[in-house]
Amino acid sequence: MIAVVEPELDDLSLGGAADLAGAGRAAEAPFQPVLIDVDRCKGCALCVAACPKGILALDETRVNVQGYHPVHLTNPEACTSDAHCARVCPDCVLIILARPRPARGVPA
Ligand code: SF4
After folding, report:
1. Using CB atoms within 10 A as the burial measure, which of 24, 48, 67, 73 is most buried?
2. 77 alpha carbon to ligand 1 midpoint, in Å?
């Protein structure tokens, strides 16, 4: 089952880290709509092919604990949280976060 998570405004820091291992409080970091469990990725690139925006790529500058080049998000701002990538990943590596919306009554 694929879930798109809509974080509460208090949980914005979760989106500040690209890797699950690094997910922590990072209030000033830009929102990251895709959380990647880097060490579970086997670099098959199914998600890269599935992304309609073309903003996923294998990171050839690093190798994970399995010896693969893991996927990374190249342009978080262009991500629409459509979760095409997470649907095709056979290893459930990706968690998709919906872009936070301002609270009611708060100007954007
Ligand atoms: S589909 Fe999953 S295992 Fe394959 S490259 Fe993407 S995140 Fe990694």
Report:
1. 73
2. 20
* Amino acid at position 103, single letter: A
**Does a structural domain hold residue 104?**
no
pLDDT tens per residue across span 19-45: 554 444 555 688 899 999 999 999 999
> Are 34 and 94 a contacting pair, CB within 8 Å?
yes
Mean pLDDT of the chain: 83
Strand, helix or coil for residue 91: coil
Polymer length in residues for the chain: 108
pTM of the full structure: 0.73
What ligand 1 atom has the least distance to the C-alpha of 36?
7
Range of the domain at 89: 4-97
Atom 4 (ligand 1): residue with closest C-alpha?
Answer: 44
In the numeric block, which tokens belong to residue 24?
């922590």
Nearest Cα to Cα of residue 33 among 89, 82, 92, 88: 82
Residue 70 makes CB contacts below 8 A (sequence gap 6+) with 36, 38, 39, 41, 43, 58, 59, 62, 64
